[in-house]
Amino acid sequence: MTQRVALATVMDRLSIDAVITDYAVAVDDGAWEDYGALFTPDGRADYRGAGGTEGPVAETVRWLEDSLRLLPVRQHLIVNRRLDLQDLGGYPGDQARVRADYLSPAGTSGTSGTDAEAGGTGSGGTAGRGQPPALVSGGRYVFELRRTEPGWRIRTVTMHEKWRYGPEPGGSETSGPGAAPTG
Predict the structure, then answer these.
(1) Residues 87-92: contacts with CB within 8 Å, 24+ apart?
(2) Which of 94, 83, 47 is nearest to 68 (CA)?
(3) What is the mean pLDDT of residues 139-163?
């Protein structure tokens, strides 16, 4: 691998990492236009593994917006990112796959200050400090990405929820799949 190819590979990895981070921020902030811009024109999202929907981005945006309305304060973390770039005989290709774990706490109001004070655009509140999230879930995302003219974009994202903890609508605690989506 030449130095030029190695540099291009590092730049691709950084660009892909930025797309994944932008995905988390868009979902957390409810920035659905930004969310849609992260996908290829034929992009799809599959949230069935967390009790949600699967389909084109425009459809999943409507579902996310409706589903997450009850949990306006979100801050999910996407960690342990494993990135596989297409290898064309020592040269990076135009496809990539990212498998990454997530932890997703969500609530009905902020725990201190407002989102605006923290630089966010979401609809956080000023509820009491130390209030636990209404819902916490964890699992794994699988992102398939493509290099496009404007840069790397998500072709598909699939959410595989492994666990969930939070109150049922009637007030009892629950864990496992099926409580409510967290994006």
Answers:
(1) 90/1, 90/5, 91/5, 92/5, 92/8, 92/9, 92/12
(2) 47
(3) 97
Q: Token pair 């921020």 is at which residue?
A: 25
Residue 113 has pLDDT above 50, yes or no: no
User: What are the structure tokens assigned to 14, written together?
Assistant: 């950084």
Phi then psi dihedrals of residue 114, to 5 deg: -125, 165
Give pLDDT, residue 182. 57
**What's residue 181's pLDDT?**
55
* Cα 57 from Cα 43, distance rounded (Å): 6
- State the Rg of the chain over Cα: 18
> What DSSP letter does each residue of the chain carry, written as one string?
--HHHHHHHHHHHHHHHHHHHHHHHHHHHT-HHHHHHTEEEEEEEEEEETT--EEEHHHHHHHHHHHHTT--EE--EEEEEEEEEEESSSSEEEEEEEEEEEEEEEESS-SSS-TTTTT--S----PPTTPPPSEEEEEEEEEEEEEETTEEEEEEEEEEEEEEEEE-TTS-EEESTTS----
Amino acid at 99: R
At 152 the pLDDT is: 98
* Dihedral, 133, 135, 140, 141 alpha carbons, nearest 10: -90
Query: Please, what sign has the CA dihedral across residues 36, 40, 43, 49?
Result: negative
